[in-house]
């Protein structure tokens, strides 16, 4: 699909894409959806999500144990290999232990970049956490101002919020259209779209998404109904678009997801009225959480059950990074909650490289047959 190519090119060669931005703006990297990128955007810098190396990991082994998740190891590998030289800064929200330790290793070894820790609360369900979170965001704003040497006013924050709301609404619209007519766009294309939108200039991404949504809205009424089974992906990020192909070849469609490269990025519009930082804080408090943050003992499970019901999904495929403890600890209760509502699930532990494609396809096909 032509409209996807621009996103795919950014995903295939993020370094090349960032060169086009570098001349105009500072570039700040991050590797977690809890990064308040609206504030970075408002400060006139370009936030870019890092997804880890596409090559072999060996330099990072000198700093991180092989039993750390491949996302964190892969991002460090890219930095040590000099592949992230376009970055002027790096922001680390405090989420899982691996990201927190990556922050320390980065500070000691990747000296050329501005470095910032955003020490978020772990619990996201109390009034005091919301107050604390607001203070953290205020501090982040001050530190960005000091670094950039320019004041960051509320008008710029408001404009950033409006831009991000538009971007997220368009991404969600593509998901909604695919949920209604899964055949109008492949899962692989959706994966490229969402990752590309986290790399590209956000206003440029909005322009391309508006075109894509128009194309898909036209196609929705014209595409023959597909009687495939419906599934949801859950987990952290999906760096393996082949998984979408395998699911589709096995006779199913991914009709929604609970991924950081997915709905965790676009869910939750930010209030456009009132104090902008308080509105950004509220989004984090109210948005579906990841397992590195706590709301209550069942909130992630309830989100998944609701997603399965809303999108008539017959099963959930968990894409958990090998060695990711937060996701591993959540899995048993999520599986149980889904099972109790009649939704089967499959756990795939993924790493830098996927298991042999035949082996993976067999597991996915067998699961889809049972759905
Ligand atoms: S995959 Fe797990 S361990 Fe790795 S960064 Fe994400 S939450 Fe942390």
Tally of DSSP β-strands = 8
Percent in strands: 5-15%
Going by helix content, strand content and strand pairing, the class is: alpha/beta
- Mean pLDDT, all residues: 94
The main pleated sheet reads as: 4 strands, parallel
- Unreliably modeled segments: none
What is the CATH architecture term of the domain at 2-150?
3-Layer(aba) Sandwich
Helical coverage, percent range = 40-55%
Please write out the topology.
Blueprint: H1 2-12, H2 14-22, E1 27-30, H3 37-42, E2 46-49, H4 70-80, E3 89-93, H5 97-109, E4 114-118, H6 127-148, H7 154-180, H8 187-199, H9 202-222, E5 229-235, H10 242-249, E6 252-258, H11 263-266, H12 276-286, H13 299-310, E7 315-321, H14 325-340, E8 345-350, H15 357-370
Parallel strand pairs: 1-2, 1-3, 3-4, 5-6, 5-7, 7-8
Helix pairs in contact: 1-2, 1-8, 1-9, 4-5, 6-12, 7-8, 7-9, 8-9, 13-14
The structure holds iron/sulfur cluster.
Summarize the structure.
The protein has helices at 2-12, 14-22, 37-42, 70-80, 97-109, 127-148, 154-180, 187-199, 202-222, 242-249, 263-266, 276-286, 299-310, 325-340, 357-370, and strands spanning 27-30, 46-49, 89-93, 114-118, 229-235, 252-258, 315-321, 345-350. The protein is α/β, with parallel strands linked by helices and 371 residues long. It has a domain at 2-150: Rossmann fold (3-Layer(aba) Sandwich), CATH 3.40.50.
